[in-house]
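dumping this here so i dont lose it again. seq + smiles for nicotinamide-adenine-dinucleotide
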Amino acid sequence: MSKTAVVTGGSSGIGLQTARRLLADGWRVWSLDVNPPPPHCATPLFMRAEMFSYLACNVSDIASTQAAFEQIQNQTEKIDALICSAGVLRAGRLVDQPPEHIDMMMNVNIKGPWLSTRYSVPLLKNGSTPGHPARVVFVGSISGIRPKVGTGFYAASKAALHVLVGVLAVELADANILVNAVAPGTVATPMICEQPGPEGIGTSFRPSGMSPLGRIAEPDDVVDVILFFLGERSCYVTGTVLPVDGGTRAAFSPK
Ligand SMILES: NC(=O)c1ccc[n+]([C@@H]2O[C@H](COP(=O)([O-])OP(=O)(O)OC[C@H]3O[C@@H](n4cnc5c(N)ncnc54)[C@H](O)[C@@H]3O)[C@@H](O)[C@H]2O)c1
């Protein structure tokens, strides 16, 4: 029988690539996103209605998230994994940022994963069996470990998310649900590629630049680690936040 995953933010970037890789591996995938999958997803992989479903869902909204999980619950008794990739970045100096940007990052980046986890726990409990724990994987950020000027509040939201990982891991251990996070450095996704640069209006956003490995990450670099957290070889790993940053935070480089 196929394993089932719910992926938030499954219409773009890391979430979309997670959905694609899981489908290719035979998983049944529910994608929750405010936006539908892009047109280039009209491929046989995404077109099998029994394997892939998109649900319009704002993960920062209680009613919207509850409704999405009710819809899933009406069609399946269990899920094996929840991957929370939905996130937003609004750059700017802390003292200048509009309060609505702060509210948005709090709501999407912290409240969103919390709400999704809350509503998925009954399904995850049904999906976990002795020796085969259910999984929750959050997409955090290296900025939550090593913050950057110009994205201070985003970094704070991801640091808070990392804290939730540890506490949820312990709270859900009895239910045999493992909770971990990846903390990517800069990844080539629309979130980064469509940010206004230093010349952009009202922001001081600058990508971190190349990692010590000489490039920024591709979504697959991050998805490889998400798949590790979903696989049989991480059954004794919970409550961790694993940097996937090519060594960006490992040491200060004067270069
Ligand atoms: N790209 C990077 O450099 C980078 C680095 C570290 C962490 N991250 C994190 O990775 C995750 C994925 O980001 P990405 O780079 O793939 O960005 P992306 O913009 O390509 O994808 C984000 C997805 O989240 C969805 N989304 C936004 N708000 C939502 C909401 N309220 N409800 C449901 N869906 C919503 C968007 O529609 C989009 O499909 C985010 O949590 C982000 O903070 C990204």
